[in-house]
Amino acid sequence: MTERQRRLRHRHAPGRVGADERGFSVLPRRGRIILLLVLAVMLVVDIALAVTEPGVAWRGLMFGLPAMLATALFIWWPPAAATSLLLIALVQITAGQDGSDVLYLAGVAGLVVYTSPLWFVSIYVVATLILTILASTVLGIFANTALPALALVVAISASIGWALRAAHGRELRLAGDVAALAQARTAAIEAERERIADELHDIIAHDITLVSMHARVLERVDYEALRDQSVRAIRAGADQALADIRRMLRIVRDDGASPLQTPDDHVPTPNIAAAFEEARDALLQLGAAITVRYSDVSVSSTIEQALVHLIREGTTNIAKHAPANASVTITLEVLDDDVCLELTNSIDPAPTTSGVPSSGYGLDRLRERVSVSGGHFTSGPADGRWVLTARLPAR
Hints:
This protein is an alpha+beta fold. It folds into two domains: 3-182, no CATH class; 268-395, Heat Shock Protein 90 (2-Layer Sandwich), CATH 3.30.565. The chain is 65% helix and 10% strand. The protein has twelve helices and five strands. A five-stranded mixed beta sheet has the order 1-2-3-5-4, covered by helices on one side. β4 and β5 (385-393) form a beta hairpin. α1 packs antiparallel against α8 (146-220), α4 (78-94) runs parallel beside α7 and α10 runs parallel beside α11 (301-321). The two termini are 29 Å apart.
């Protein structure tokens, strides 16, 4: 479970439905509308009674209206609403009224349970009990037989409030889980797109670059043997690019497949020796003078894959930007517990015009790939040559 999912679960637990830092929560929009409608109906009924029965009814309306206004505070500030109702009931009892506000306290217990933390609910229930006993025993407003009825009203109202609170909590938790799943799905889709983009750049862009460079060789060279060599290289590069595109299409259709390993993929697992031979052949066909120096190294599969990507991307960049008949050196050696790969090529003082556009994406991804593997990456001119260096841990 992610940290965001844990926060959503904690925030939407039944004890904290839309709660602030003290544990109080406001009514949802539907609850606010229902409460206002109920209060409006009560007010209309009280006014109608006051009109038809002047005197006592108007006196009851005068004491009942503050309780209605206090109840409306549950929409914005639940603790103020509950406290106000307790004070109004105390004033009514002290004034010797009929004790209807004590009944009102019992009726709105559900609102208190729905919007308040347990400690505040406990205080409210105890205060209601004290006011009820005060009204019953001290002032004689209630008969003793009314106490069980009041307790039943409190129990029913509180049970309804808790049930609604729990249901709303489940609804919010479900919404949080759905949001977390949607975010996880979006992240998975983005990761898959990034993976496919890397595959397209690392393999297909390499093939297309070599095809483009050999096509330009055909434009400049009249020697039949070199032209035949370039034609074969173009055909091989195009066939390889087509095979890679078909492989990528299979990956897109099969969500469970991996770009680097599919069940029906007959391309062997990339290895360092094959990558060196591929780089040597490609650059020799373009007329470069290439020197390759490497020894067998024992590295993890992740590091080997990173080295293969480095060799391919470095070869692609040399094919794009190095001058004709450039001198190229590729070296792989072990330094302490690390492996160090270096690709260098001669550069022209004047900018080259290979005609192949460069986005810089390849070098950025190489730098990121090396960094994730715990290595160090540099690329830039030095002493009349372009130098790409990557140092990676062997394991």
